[in-house]
């Protein structure tokens, strides 16, 4: 059924004609994959052509490399715009912070913020923008979206300085996808990477551990 839909949606003429002629697409695929004739094909060979990927054929597990950690402080209390199209809008103005790491270090400049929304399922969706200034004078604009859930558990741990134990950390899902922009040639490599951040609320601030996806 999936192949038949694909043939029509993607307008693949050869597939559409094969179905119209009543051909066995999976047997034809198995014949090409394994070099056996369609006529008299062992059913087990045909099934191998449509079976899910085996462990040996599965996709490579992603690998990560530590990029930096940064802490950003916000004004208290945040501006609560109220509930509208996308949930309750909360705006948090950024007041500064620090960036630490072997590859990227410096400070978070007092500009930018987070234009987050909170839905009825206690999930906060981040929409943040910050500017980093490196220790050697480069300016790097960082924008990121992300998910924080449940917000109530994050607030509970934030009052104690953030989650302290593996069990407390497991109670909160806080992930971001930062994107970097800079015209400084020394850090131009940041423009061409994909990164993920693991966050924690620590009371009036957030902390992120950021990793480059290799």
Question: How would you sum up this structure in a few lines?
Answer:
With 214 residues, the chain is of the alpha+beta class.
Could you explain the architecture of this structure?
The protein has 214 residues and is of the alpha+beta class. Helices cover 22% and strands 41% of the residues. It has helices at 2-9, 13-20, 25-34, 43-50, 151-158, 166-170; strands spanning 64-74, 79-84, 87-100, 106-108, 113-118, 124-134, 139-149, 173-181, 194-201, 205-213. Strands 1, 2, 3, 4, 5, 6, 7, 8, 9 and 10 form a ten-stranded antiparallel sheet that branches. α3 (25-34) crosses α4 (43-50). The protein is elongated and about 75 Å long.
- Please work out how many helical segments DSSP would assign: 6
Oligomer: single chain
Q: How much of the sequence is in beta strands? A: 35-45%
Helix content: 10-25%
Distance between the termini: 36 Å
The low-confidence runs, each spanning 5 or more residues with pLDDT under 50, are: none
Mean pLDDT: 86
Describe the global form: elongated
**Rg (C-alpha, Å):** 25 Å
How can the largest sheet be summarized? 10 strands, antiparallel
Strand tally, please?
Answer: 10
Structural class: alpha+beta
Q: What series of H and E elements makes up the topology?
A: HHHHEEEEEEEHHEEE
